[in-house]
Amino acid sequence: MHSAKNAAAMLTRTASHTARTVLSKFYSSVATPRYVPRRAVMYVPGSDQRKIDKVAAVAADCVVLDCEDGVALNQKEAARNTIRATLEKKRSLFAGKDCSVRVNAVSSDLWKDDLASVLASQHLPTTLHLPKVDSTRDIDMFASEVVRLLEGRHLEEPLRVFLFCESGRSLLRLAELCEHGLGLPPPLLLDGFVFGSDDYCADIGMTRSSLARELLYARQKFVSVVRSFRLQAIDLVYIDYKNLAGLERQSVEGAEFGFTGKQVIHPCQVDIVQRAFSPSPKRVQWARGLLEAYEKHQTQGAGAFTYQGSMIDMPLVLQARNVIATSAAQSSSTHTDGDLRAPSYSSPLA
Amino acid sequence: MHSAKNAAAMLTRTASHTARTVLSKFYSSVATPRYVPRRAVMYVPGSDQRKIDKVAAVAADCVVLDCEDGVALNQKEAARNTIRATLEKKRSLFAGKDCSVRVNAVSSDLWKDDLASVLASQHLPTTLHLPKVDSTRDIDMFASEVVRLLEGRHLEEPLRVFLFCESGRSLLRLAELCEHGLGLPPPLLLDGFVFGSDDYCADIGMTRSSLARELLYARQKFVSVVRSFRLQAIDLVYIDYKNLAGLERQSVEGAEFGFTGKQVIHPCQVDIVQRAFSPSPKRVQWARGLLEAYEKHQTQGAGAFTYQGSMIDMPLVLQARNVIATSAAQSSSTHTDGDLRAPSYSSPLA
Amino acid sequence: MHSAKNAAAMLTRTASHTARTVLSKFYSSVATPRYVPRRAVMYVPGSDQRKIDKVAAVAADCVVLDCEDGVALNQKEAARNTIRATLEKKRSLFAGKDCSVRVNAVSSDLWKDDLASVLASQHLPTTLHLPKVDSTRDIDMFASEVVRLLEGRHLEEPLRVFLFCESGRSLLRLAELCEHGLGLPPPLLLDGFVFGSDDYCADIGMTRSSLARELLYARQKFVSVVRSFRLQAIDLVYIDYKNLAGLERQSVEGAEFGFTGKQVIHPCQVDIVQRAFSPSPKRVQWARGLLEAYEKHQTQGAGAFTYQGSMIDMPLVLQARNVIATSAAQSSSTHTDGDLRAPSYSSPLA
């Protein structure tokens, strides 16, 4: 019941089943789009060939070739060309990784040229990141441009999308944006949202403190809403990249809050972040033990029971199943038997 | 003005007055349904006769005979029978207590059988608890089934209802659920909501920490919304039942946040919780003194004034009245001159 | 690019531009209504002539002559008369200050008489404060009464308005109230919202603690929503006016959260609050240095770069611009080249 294989099977849920049925009409290679874990989401400026060439040595689940904030205005065109050349000739740098591209926001003059360049490549990225999404109109404009540019092409897999929440308005409308994003037309498939804390702070007029207490409401609302829609939720950047202890503290906190991953701006941050967003061996062991005890007590007719000093009933059992499923999904992410959505249980299994 | 008797009279508010007018057409024994305090809300597995028989010795305001998470799947039928027999023959065990029953969620196959069994009893429970309410449809299905089962019966009092918020979706729609719940058809009467933190955590994919900092947004949003509708708000379970210091800290915190009570899973938790959700003698004394000073200053024509080193104006006066009213309601809960709703003042008295 | 003068110019944004275009048809003296900083918002009971006469010596940006909670019921008429006489004959007491009047709530019987008295004065206050706004209807009633009373009068400037959020319902509907308030008819112009924490606590039934942890959700939601609409957001009162260390801690926290100012109930609180809501010289220096480094790197074609040990890209640049703009607006508030709205950047400058 709680082996890695069964856990992966448990990931199958009604919502994703429906999505799969629809999607299998569009993509030949997979009946079931795989679950793509993204614990560390690392940005690399699209204009920086030297940093791009080092990507293969970085163990981040997801690398984002950036056209947006990491690229100076006079380097936008160079970034597009470098990214396209990388996709065409150096796709192998991204083996085992989610190869993503972040285009500029639809409120800029740049995004259409970004998309035109990136989507003209023979080898597409796995995922597109769209920053500064403030309204459903932003999503629609982006989607119709992508669909137009990909017309007539046959894709092996859906093209995943991440949207960015980076303003007060976006946070205010987040549920509406999630719902709208889940209706993206094929071949697009919404995988999650990123919380852009520094743009959010600039928008609200906040001052960042090291413990980010001022962001508690925004981060916890963000994760509550995004995870309600079974989407991945990516936490804020820790910009003080020399402070690894601070990074670890904030990463562990983000995982506790329910985020599924975290943005990273330097390779030295990757290991700490990946570890924080993986269930620890101790927690996996706790979960296995709890599930074994649960089955035993169920057979004996006991509902609630005591395990390691705490009173356990169904909600804790579901949490333990989450731990096992997440752990399994992360270690088997190259297979295709995962789920479209981040693992989460809201109701007992039938 | 601030004696216990006057305080109870002050509980009468427009909203409850309207409800009373409607309700008095349906229930013979009381013109004014009484306020039912529920500081400690203790679950007892419906299948566990031994624990049920000990209920009389427990000082919890509210005891919930559970058909749901505390009962193993193969014991559901046994739990129904035990609960029904308890209601028929051992109702005296619950003297002075809110005798509640928690049925299974409408998303299960179990809830209709639960209701059919419990509502066939000659002596009804005071309150029904409905877990995992994710939509207004859940409320409607539950209500129409209860109304159908009680057709033709004459009730002395309204049948109170508590709904559970235990998922991201439920928290997202909480205001809508409150509003809808306040429109429950007679003889049902919504008394409040329970926050089911462990199911919520499983749904979002959170990891629980001992200080529950990860739940700050969810708990504070929950209490803000629920109390806006003048409903009781019941805080999360503290599952580490051997850690009484931790329980006390969290109980005091919950009372400060505005919760009116807390879920309890072991008799040893009851006293600490009941105390935390009662205004302390010191606070009652603070409130009495403040109200006396207020009346004196009003007569003398002073609006704001200093009391115990703080600047006092109307909002603090209202808080002091809350303290007196809550204290009075808890000590006079067996009388029928209380309010339908939890005490709260949002506007000065006329 | 980052001088005070340029910063003030940078304050011009699309939303305010539109407002300006509309407003310039109504007010003769200014093409651009100025930005009115309100770091400390100090209440003075309208019935207390002695305290009013001391106002000139207090360095608060904004002084509010109060008809509401600071005035005893039997002093309401006296307060109206004193305020009107003050406006007529002692307007010079308020030189360089925002001279405001808080009327009673529309749910009281008092507000119409308050308005009739205050608006009959030849010299109007700069700003009207309306407490306890729970619905859009409250706003409409207030607006139509003001418009009626001012009919036929020619105003030099718009009459600014602050609305108070002081209940759970108000917090629940805050976005709707902001949106509605932005549509106030001329000569009214919404400048912001005040968070009335003590009435909010009375409404929810909370107990205040010294660190106000129980208000984290309410304050952070309030500031997020209000600032999303580019309005000023005024933080709670610190009622323990003898504890200046506690006041400073809470003021700094409020500024970090994104509040633009704070309510004050005693002159001894003013300096600490004004300082906390002004960018410190050190932060202004940080911002100037960052913007210089940014321009240098942009010219050299670098997008992200390191500054003082942190990775900087566009969002941090926007935060630095906020600091410069706020500092400039506060020091040049008597000029008319500021903005209608509190400074905030959500998108890069063209």
What keywords describe this structure?
homotrimer, 350 residues, alpha/beta, TIM Barrel, 8-stranded parallel β-barrel, 10 strands, globular
Instruction: Work out the largest interface and the residue count of each chain.
Output: A-B, 45 and 48 residues
Report strand order across the widest sheet of chain A. 1-2-3-4-5-6-7-8
CATH superfamily grouping of the largest domain in chain A:
Phosphoenolpyruvate-binding domains
CATH top level class name of the largest domain in chain A: Alpha Beta
What is the residue-averaged pLDDT of chain A?
86
**Total count of strands of chain A:** 10
Assembly type of the chains comes to homotrimer
Q: Structural class, judged by helices and strands of chain A?
A: alpha/beta
| Major beta sheet summary of chain A | 8 strands, parallel, barrel
Query: Helical region count of chain A?
Result: 14
* Global geometry of chain A: globular
Q: Which percent band covers the strand fraction of chain A?
A: 5-15%
Description:
The structure is a homotrimer of 350-residue chains. Chain A is an alpha/beta fold. Chain A contains 14 helices and ten strands. The first copy, chain A, folds into two domains: 40-276, Phosphoenolpyruvate-binding domains (TIM Barrel), CATH 3.20.20; 281-331, no CATH class. In chain A, the strands form two sheets. Chain A has an eight-stranded parallel β-barrel, surrounded by five helices. In chain A, strands 9-10 form a two-stranded antiparallel sheet. Chain A is globular, with a radius of gyration of 20 Å. In chain A, 56% of the residues are buried. At the A-B interface, α10, α11, α13, β10 and α14 of A face α7, α9 and α10 of B.
